[in-house]
Amino acid sequence: MKKLSGWQKAGLFAGIGCLSIVVILVVGAMVAVMWARSTMAQYGDTNPTRTERTIALPAPRVATPAAGAAKGAAPSADALRLTVNLQDGDFTVQPGPPGGQVQVEGTYAQGLYELTEEGSDEAGGARTIRFRSKAPAWARLLSGIGNNSESRPHLTVAIPAGVPIDLALSVGQGESRIDLGGLTLKELRLDITMGNHQVDFKEPVAPGLRTMRVNASMGNVSIDHLGNAGAQTIDASGSMGNLRVDLGGNWKKEAEADVSFRHSMGELTVNVPTQVRLEANVTSSQGKADDRSADSRETQDPAAPRLRLRVSTSMGDSHITRY
Hints:
The model has no long low-confidence stretch (mean pLDDT about 85). The chain is mainly β. It has a 15-stranded mixed sheet that branches. Strands 2-3 form a two-stranded antiparallel ribbon. It is built from two helices and 17 strands. About 15% of the residues lie in helices and about 50% in strands. It has a single domain, classed as Pectate Lyase C-like. The chain has helices at about 5-40, 135-145, and strands at about 50-55, 60-65, 75, 80-95, 100-110, 115-120, 125-135, 155-160, 165-180, 185-200, 210-225, 235-245, 255-270, 275-285, 290, 305-315, 315-320. Strand 6 (about 115-120) and strand 7 (about 125-135) form a beta hairpin.
């Protein structure tokens, strides 16, 4: 047998080493998948089933008329505090029929996910609704269970119209379509992360929001018809993704609003109708600011809504357009 040269020996050892690494990786992957499936088996049935659930809200606390109010004025109801936290699924949030109940329906594997509620039933109390996975994300990923479109949870959450609500809505690790138009909201906080999310106000919010706060990160988020929200203050921040916002809608006559957007590591687009008067302050660091806030088509009506818009971006681009 011919003696191998030094280069041939080196090549042989390198080939054996590479093959060993491949074998180790394959065996390791097989072990990880088996471990993940064994872990998932502990949670029971992984087949999605149909679920319908009604969650009662506490009765609102009735506020006494303020001093100096007109004689015979009807007492007003304080807003209920409702927190909705949705994770790991495909979600639709929409207005529901009037009443004191949140309606939840859809399909999910009850062995892998849980829908819980907590809070006080006393008048004026708070209610928290959560939907989340019981199994760790690594186990679902490696086992392939709960990650494809067939086994992924699909839920619709209907929030009752006509009930004064301070709403905190958090949606992450999935996709969502959210319509809050037509609800009676006073305060709103949106936390939207990790996925593709569409937020809309298709109908005006009654009587109009005092404040709206938005946090969007690690995904693509669009927010439409913000004028229908009627918010006096909008404070939004975003990072590591794209955020598109439309300030159109039914702004009230002579309304004034402070609107602020801060965004980093992504693209921010703000579309503003010419039917409102706009005062814009746009700044950008380590990025590009395409500021088209000034437009000759802007209404000259002194009673038109006035928006004070502040946009600040870093490590990304911003686009302010009129239409």
